Amino acid sequence: MRCVCAVQSTRASWLKHDINTASLQHELDYANHEQRAKMKEFFKQPLFVPQYNISVDEERRLALKRLQAVCSQGFFSVRDFRTNPDKIFAAHELSGFVDGAMVSGARLTHMHNGRECQLRRMCI
Predict the structure, then answer these.
(1) Cβ neighbours for 121, distance < 8 A, ≥ 6 positions apart
(2) I need a surface site. Which of 69, 73, 111, 123 has the fewest CB within 10 A?
(3) Is 116 part of a structural domain of the chain?
(4) pLDDT band, residue 110 (cuts 50/70/90)
């Protein structure tokens, strides 16, 4: 019994911390903080809620819909490859956290003024 109490008190102490989470998040998000904050807020809409036990076709359609939604917001532009490549990497990273199929099972292959996207299936 004594051992169980010690484990419980240790676990309870883990939850008590004085870490400044906003500062930690700022350090982990090494660049493009404003863009990342806007994207994180954008991802809170119902379209980005995880869906489980769906068919491959449904998953592809959902990934396309999500990718089109992200691209339509203008979070990044093809010009960013030249001026701010970290912006592209940040968008890719955050999109992957939300839906891996958006960034791995599909490729962003065409951008026109950073707003129109075309999805092409990757051949494996």
Answers:
(1) 60, 105, 106
(2) 123
(3) yes
(4) very low
Cα dihedral 60/108/117/111 (nearest 10): -170
- The model's pLDDT over 8-61, given as tens digits with 9 standing for 90+, comes to 677 677 777 778 888 888 888 888 999 999 999 999 999 999 999 999 999 989
The domain of 54 spans 31-121
Strand 116-121 versus strand 106-112 pairing type: antiparallel
Number of independent structural domains in the chain: 1
Query: CA 24 → CA 18, 29, 42, 47, 89, distances in Å?
Result: 12, 9, 21, 28, 20
Structural domain includes residue 73? yes
Report whether 94 contacts 31 (CB < 8 A).
Answer: no
The count of other CB atoms within 10 Å of the CB of residue 117 is 19
